[in-house]
Structure formats: structure tokens, C-alpha cells
Amino acid sequence: MLNLQFKGQALLEVAIFGSIILMLLGVLINYGLKYNSQQKTMQQAFRKSLARAVSQPGISTSSVVVKDTHIPNPSDTFGVGSVTPFTGSAGAVIRDYQMSETADTESELPRISLNINGQELTYLTAGFRDETNVPEGSLDRYDEIYGSGNVWVTSDGECLEEGTSVDPNTGETATSCIQPTQNIRIIDYCAGEIMDYGSAVKQCRMIVDSEACAIECNRSHYGDSSGTDCSSVCGQTINIPWYCADYTEADSVNHAYNFPLLEQLFASSALKAMGLQQGYTQRTTTENALRKTESPSGITTTDNLNWKTETTRKIITQPYGATSVSPVTEEVISEVAQEKVDSRKTEW
Amino acid sequence: MRLRRRKLIPVRLNGKQAQVSLELAASLVVVFVLLFGTLQVFLWMNKRLVQRQQDYEAKRVTAANSAAEVQTDETDQAKYPKLNIFGQ
User: Fold this and answer.
1) Which of B26, B48, B70 sits opposite A14 (nearest CB)?
2) How far is B13 from chain A (nearest CA, A)?
3) Cα–Cα distances in Å, from A154 out to A109, A148, A240?
4) Cα-based angle B15, B16, B21 (whole degrees, multiple of 5)
5) Residues A51-86: pLDDT tens digits?
6) Cβ-Cβ contacts under 8 Å, B30 against chain A
7) Measured between beta carbons, which residues in chain A are less than 8 angstroms from residue B16?
8) ipTM score of the complex?
9) What are the domain boundaries of chain B?
């Protein structure tokens, strides 16, 4: 006697477990494609930096490659899955004989190149800042804060104090400068189109607080034989750049300060970061058309699926040479789209 | 105390002999097809990973001396075959 109650149980079980297996297959495909795309973008980013080291020697350019890749979903009829972004980044590649070279002109300043799905965008990560009439003693503090390779004298400045001397033999009076000054140029990593919040705060602390400067100075010279007297170097007065202005002291013991202009500059970024923002928005539109054609031989069904995913990213920068809070938010939109057609015929 | 003997219940087959084997046979076919597909996908991905790294390393010197970007060429179908699970 045949028990019909259990007919098709095997098929039912396959249908249930099959869907779980399909889901697992999707996870595995995702895993494999992820590693493939990650490897590809990392290699591309490094080769971009390497090519620039040859074509533009002496210019430090880091590269970031962002590529949106479609990861198919095996559970979907058309295999439509999600669009996943892959990011590869490479630091600046510099030829060894140019390691100690610094930028002399604007075109030689360090920069970052962003390649977002083929759209190439380049931003300066440092800029020049000129300071005039810097007393000789203060030059050491500029060296300490901005790095000795990033500060150089461009011309002589005004004389702060003149003295006269009389030649005992001739009785002639000669005037000479007792306190000469110099005009300097600085490669400031906070004066580019993209600046780092943490570095800017640290730099401002060293500029506005002599003790904080001495602490950082001692830390950086610990164990070296330069014999730098950090208290003396940091005791000199230097000019405060625009982004450190209007500061208030928050904690005198820990040398913590509030820099309102920096806060305003980074206000539009949740993570207080300039450049390409981590977050992005994706908008997927799907167009599905089903067409049935009846003929004497049977029915032909054509499923048409067009989908498009638009990813909008934000890049926050400041204009080069800005001297006030003026962040610029740029939107970069990239698109991944597919047209899928599935046609099948059923005989009468 | 006397132990009570359990009453044996006779097994009623009701025509369901080898039902489990039948179900297993049917589902194993599907499971093996899926496993085979997964294996093929992974072999394809692994081959591409290895091949790309090999090509990348092979062009190190050329890339370091070229002003143009030297990227891995993946258009060669012999080296980078398309995913073909069942065919060869």
C-alpha cells in the first residue's frame, strides 16, 4: 500500500536546504570576488604611484583607487546582487636619489590622486606659507615645528634694531643691523587642499604653547646627538597661522586647546577628515519588463531586467591658498549598470 | 518490586521501505551539483589571483622604468579565462 502523505518529501527537503546551500554559495562567491577585486585595486594603486614617480620625478604623489564592483547573488533569478566598493591605496613612491628633495615650486608640492571608477581627481596635501621679518632665533622654532627640510630663507627681511659704531681711527659713523630678520617660506602640511585634523591640532598646540612645543621637541630628539635645547628653541615667538587663530585653552595641565577655526573647517565631516569621505549613498533603480508572445508553436516569455546603481561620494577640501574657513564639498557620482534578458519558450 | 515488561510495537512499513535512501539519492545529486559548482568557482578565482600576482611581479622592472602606468593585462582569455562551470 502506498502512503501518499509523504509524496514529494525529498523534493521539499531539497527545496529548503537547496536555498540554504545557494545562500552559502553566494557568500563564498562574495568572498572570492572580494579578494580578487581587492588584489586588483591594490596593485593598480601602487602602479599608479610608481608611474608618477617616473613621469613626475621629485613629486610625492599617493594614490587611492576606488572601484565599485557588482557581486552577483546566485539566489536571484538574474543574479543581481549588490554593488560593493573596493579601495586600494598606495603611499607616495619616490626615487631614492630624490628622497631628500623638497618642493621649490607649486607644481612640485605633494599631492594625493583619487581615482574613483576611472574619474581622476588630484589634490595638494601641502602648500607654501610665507612669513616675513622672522627674527633669526625664531627660525629654529619654525624648523622644529614644520621640519627643517620644509623651512628655508628666501630673502633678508627688515632690520628690527639698528646700531651705530664709530671707527676710532677715522671717526666715521657706521650703521649696522643688530637684530636682522629674514623672510622665509614654509611647506605647511596644513596649507594644502587636504589637511589632517590630528596633525593640524598637534601643530597648532606647538605653535601657541611653548611648553607643549618643548614636550614634543624633547620627544622627537630623545636619544639623538643633536644637543637641541628644546626649552630655548620653543621659547622663541613665531607667527600664528590663520587656522590656529582665536584659540582658547581647555586644559592647562595637559596643554589642551580649542581651535574654533579648525572645528569649523572639519564641521561637515563626522569623522573630522578631509578628502574622500568614508560614507557614501547608493541609489538602485530597477526596470523589469515581462513580454509574452503566443505563436502556433508555443509561448515565448522574455524577461527584461535593467538595473542601475548610482553611488554618490563626497570629497571635502579647502581651496588652495585659503586664509579663512571655506570648506568645499564636491560630489562624485559613479554608476554601475547592467541589462539582463532571459528568454524561454514553452511548446503547446 | 516486579518490573513491567514493555509491550513491543510492531514496525509498520506502509510501503515506505527505502524512503530515506530515495530521498538521500535525490538530494545528493543536487548537493553534489552545487558543491561542484562552488569548487569550480573557487578554482577559477584562485587561478585568477595567482595569475594576476605572477603577471604583476613579472612586470616590476618594466613598471619601475615606465612613465606610463603598467597594469596587469587581463584581456588574454588563455591566461584569464571567463567563468565556465560546466564546459571546458
Assistant:
1) B26
2) 9
3) 17, 14, 19
4) 140
5) 988 888 778 889 999 999 988 887 787 778 889 999
6) 14, 18
7) 3, 6
8) 0.70
9) 43-88
